[in-house]
Structures are given as C-alpha cells and as structure tokens.
C-alpha cells in the first residue's frame, strides 16, 4: 500500500493495518544517479516478534537482490550505494515473551470465565437443587446474576495477578493504561462467563459441560486467537472462523496495550466486538433459562 506521507504510514502501523514501512527520501534517485550514498528507511511492527523477524528478513533479501541487479546492469562489482536505516517499534529486542505473555492472559481468563462457569448450573441440575431454586421467589435473572458475580470477581482477580506477574516476573513492558486494560478484561470476561453459563444451562451434566467448554472456548482461544499461531498465516477459511472467537479480539487488545500503548482505533474496534458478543451470549443464556423455568 502506498501512503501519501510518512505520518499516514506511521498511523497505519500504530493501528496494526500495516506490519512495516519502507520509505525513500525525496532525493533518493538523484543521489544514486550522481554516485552519492543514498539512505532508505524501514520500520517494522515488533508486537509479533516472529512476524517482525520474517519481515526484517524479507526487507534484507529485497535490498540484497536489488543491489545485485543494479550491479549486474551496470557491469560492475557489487557496491552498496544505499545505507538502510531500520527500526523496530514496540518490541525492539524482538523478545517472544513480550507478545506471548499478554496472549497467555487471555487463555487464563478463558479457563476461569468459561470452564469454571460451565459447571455451576449443571451442578445444580445434578444435585437436584435447581428445582428448589426455581420454586423460590428469586427470579431466574437473579439466579444467573448470583452465579456470575463470584466468577467475575475471581476472573478479574486472576487478571490482576497475571498482569502483575507479566510485568514484574517476566519484565513485559506495560505501555498502556491500567483502566483501559481493566475495561477490556471485564468485557472479555463477560463474554467468557456468558458462554460458560449458556453451556451450563444447556447441559445438565458437569462432565458434558466441561468437555463442551474446552472444545468451544479453550481450544479456539489457544489455537485461533493469534496467541500462538499468526492469524494472517492461516488458510483463508480459518481466518474467517477466527472472527467468531472472542479471544482473538482480546489478544489484539492485550498485545496493543502492553507493547504499543493506548492505540484507540485498535482498542475500541476490538472492544466493540467483545461488547456485542457479551450482550449476545448473556441475552441468549437469559432467554434459554426463562424457557426452562416456564
């Protein structure tokens, strides 16, 4: 993609619309034709260290190939008339843990939010106490809220502990604000809780609920969220499927807040997707519970 100026290209990298920038100075051709040393710049988004290394290798390969072709066309030995100046944003050392650890927080919160919550209503059915709850004057909304609140607090506590360990134990930089991280985590936790409660409502057996929760929530969060495998490297059909995986949006937010800071185009876009999914799953859970009560 061609950008009109370096500022527009930088904004694209900040918004994660581009993985890197290659720019030439306005007098680049003139310096080459006059035999002077020209300079070119390359900027790589280092949030994903693996992608950054690959892109850096591509840039170096293109540069070497261009130099060889130029030398062959001129009938001279290989010369280096261009001095590349490359910079890596957000993760200059290209440390893998700096983008793996934030993604791991999403997996941990998925386990707390979805897997544990998937057992709560199923446990009531197995023990035969759900009928007693339904016969009480407590509404189904209040029952679900009572199931949600403890696990929401547990999930937020797990998030706080995970962030503290990421910063102090693994030395992962936290460039963004804590309140943005907390808000995004709360939205994702509501999605996970909604999915867990929906599974628990539909399955009256704890074993079945646990197996379904692992398949529907944990495995996609581990494989299809971008935590381990780069989404852009997946087949096109799989890339489409990743859009229904809530952890995909949360991993993007986590990596952005930790390594790049409060980049609002990225945070708000992905937070909006999480909000829609939270409302959807919690709404379906409430309606399904009402039908069972009736």
UniProtKB/TrEMBL annotation:
Residue spans crossing the bilayer: 99-122, 148-171, 178-202, 208-228, 240-260, 266-286
Name of the protein: ABC transporter permease
Keyword Transmembrane helix: yes
Leader sequence segment: none
The family this protein is said to belong to: Belongs to the ABC-2 integral membrane protein family.
InterPro entries: ABC-2_transporter_component (IPR051449), ABC2_TM (IPR013525), ABC2_TM_bact-type (IPR047817)
Domain ABC transmembrane type-2: 56-292
Bilayer topology term: Multi-pass membrane protein
Keywords: Cell membrane, Membrane, Transmembrane, Transmembrane helix, Transport
A molecular-function term among this protein's GO annotations: ABC-type transporter activity
Cell location: Cell membrane
